[in-house]
Amino acid sequence: MHPNPLFRSEDRALFEALIDGIGFGMVFHTTPDGPRVAHVPLLSTGDGALQFHLARGNALTRHLDGATALVTVNGPDAYVSPRWYDERDTVPTWDYVALEMEGRVRRMDDEGLEALLHAVIEKFEGRLEGEGWSADESSDATWSRLFKGIVGFEMEVLAWRPTLKLSQKRTPAERERIATGLETSGSPALARLMRSLAA
Question: What's the pLDDT score for residue 199?
Fold first, then answer.
């Protein structure tokens, strides 16, 4: 989390929207073999918990149950050029949106993992155009093989640490130039957030 309080928020609805919109994050934990990270699809329960699954052989899997872990979700980010400032006698920066969540992790039972897999499939298939794919299209043998190879987890989030660094220190005119510059250089999502959140 960025140390400047100007870049923080207490807006839980915004956090939930970020998790839902991105749907992917990183789980960090220190193991006896050193720090490890896993990249996972994430599902928010809507009541302060995150669910995810890992391959059974993942370096984190055997260490997470009962542990305190950190999950991060990275939103849009982009380089910000001084060419968009009133004064060019400065240095570039990087604007970004990120959410860190710390909490206790528990291993899910088979019923919970089954529900998680179906919920993730339904959510992400629903975002694609055309006829969707259903878990029912997997044979029992294929599904069983997949199921035996993964472990489900749920993390109760105890601390939410967002960073919404969107050029808040700049004047409204500069922020608009930055947003326009971001749009034209391939970062429209960050420009939209800058206009809606940093105004």
Answer: 57
Q: What are the chain's domains?
A: 5-169 (2.30.110.10)
Q: How many residues does the chain have?
A: 199
Q: Which pTM was predicted?
A: 0.92
The alpha carbon of residue 103 and the mean position of all alpha carbons in its chain are separated, in whole angstroms, by 15
CB atoms within 10 A of CB 12: 12
pLDDT score at 37:
97
pLDDT at 180: 97
Determine which helix (DSSP H) or strand (DSSP E) holds 100, and give its type and residue range.
strand 93-107
Helices (H) then strands (E): counts for the chain: 6, 7
For residue 53, what pLDDT is reported? Answer: 98
Q: Which amino acid is at 146?
A: L
Residue spans of alpha helices (H) in 97-171: 110-125, 140-148
**Low-confidence stretches of the chain (pLDDT beneath 50):** none
Cα–Cα distance for residue pair 109/52, rounded to 1 Å: 13
Residue 160, C-beta contacts closer than 8 angstroms, at least 6 positions apart = 12, 15, 99, 100, 101
